[in-house]
Amino acid sequence: MKKIIWPLIFLVFLALIAAFAGGCSLLTLPTPKVPVASKVYDINNKVITTLYRENRVEIQVEKIPQMTRNAFIAVEDTRFYKHFGLDPVRIIGSAWHNLRSGKLVEGGSTITQQTVKNLYLSREKTFGRKFREALLAIQMERKHSKDEILELYLNQIYFGHGAYGIEIASQTYFDKPASDLDLAESAMLAGLPKAPNTYSPFKDREKARGRQKTVLERMTDAGFITRKEADEAFREKLILKSGTAKTETASYFISEVIQYLTDKYEDGADMLYADGISVYTTLDLEMQKAAEASFNSVLQNQDGQLEGALVAIEPGIGHIRAMVGGRDFSRSKFNRAVQAKRQPGSAFKPFLYTAAIDRGYTQGSTFTCEYVEFPQANGKLYTPTDYGSNPYHNRPLTLKEALKISDNIVAVRLANEVAPQVMAEYARKMGIESELRPYLSLALGTSEVTPLEMAGAYSTLASGGIKSKPLFILKITDKKGRLIEENTPVTERVISDSTAYLVTDMLSAVFEPGGTAGSLSGIISRPAAGKTGTTQNYRDAWFVGYTPHLAASVYIGYDNPEKAVGIPGGKIAGPIWARFMSKALENIPSVEFTVPPDIVTVNICTDTGLLATPLSPDTIRASFLKGTEPREYCTLHFFSGSENGAGLWNSWPGLRDKNILNHKIWPKNA
Hints:
The protein is an alpha+beta fold.
């Protein structure tokens, strides 16, 4: 009986204190502060995720349906609008019911007391805490209106499954905003705060319905609804949200957002998890989903330890549209898109070719692929070879063909003429920030870079020579919409549009038959440029490429640098890239790369780099800066004085135009 009598005496004592206190100001009331979830939006203002210490989103009381408010009042504090923070009538009634039952079956706390307890007080169960709760409840009633108190209460009570507040509870259980709740749903939610785990409809539907019925009966007794309305609500079949666990999208991107704010702002953690800020990002949620699907579809049948990354950037403005930092964020928080520095292999070659084009080399410049030695500073000889069973082609290759088939010997010979320091300078100019070792082998990608750097540097080519700093946060506002931070693209022209186009044209040939990514043309059916990358012993695999609208890099490799992928970049990273680009751009019209006005295109012989003749066995379409195109015809494949030669001459209309023959080298008897 002591367990019953003492609470009874204490509750009566509280009632007497309240009566005595009346309208007196007994205690200074702290300013209520309910932690509010922050939202992170994509470029189309779609919510990517919410960040919270407690999963909570505030909602104004007037936006909560009256029947929902009445449901909570009926089951928690029927006399809410009649008492002054404490309810002596309820206290005495509860004490009487407890005494009759011989156990504690009913409490006497009002909604105001519960709000005070949750906002200001610890969870300890002592007379001192209860006394302070009573004083603060009285003061809260003096400082706030009833509706304001009800708003505070409904925004901070716990509903189970990580949901705090009526808005998140409504979304968690019924996948709808609180403003759309009906009577049956309101009654179900109002019954949860007493014992969220016990009455969760996800865990025990019957217990939840029993509690719902209790709420409806209380509402009927209080005169809020009729018996008929209560019965109809109880018979309503509630449609619960499918499951309570949500699949996180863009986890690695969100981790970068969190890192940025906590690094930049001293109170960044509070801003994110308690202040209800809005972070507007550059991510495109649909592109992100395409990135994750493409990444997982290719790697799902691979070794579970095989990792990688994908990052996509919109050229010209630097907006990061998609980011995958690994296969499973819950397993590894290491964001390989921005943190993994790996050798890119031949994917580095476009920086060399850009430097060469700027220094007067053309798509038709030829180098012989054969055994060659380069003395090094350490006294050793560097002898590059190609991949595959044949280390050398043993023939001359134009730069366009060499890049198309990713010839290593031509790349190193070109680097030797251009100079490794110049090659490194161009890579940095275009967006690579990692340290680069200026050796000849740099042409084959022997310095470590990140996938984000590679995507950004390739986007410089895609945008016609304009480098843009990668950007992932556009603006941040507080919960009242006031601007905290705003970011705009940071751009700089670093190479001419003509040079960018000429390199792009060469990289487009990579998708043609015979190119290292020829098999991908069936996946991405739009103009594209790109480059495969495979490091020594097939340790890491890359594919980096772009269209006029989007640049993306894909890296595949093990976190353990001793393990090798064993698959070339075009066979594992390439399909991920192509599938992603195809899906990400499916609603964007296909367009050609813009051709600058000072570019001309002619057919050249692959053996000499000169204008092709009808007898040239292998020809390619090559683009040139106007004035640098070849004016001479191929001297290896020319006409003899035979009848056959004359026939070919007459059948080739272009040769009859004498203007074409200017500056030609041609046999006199042709």
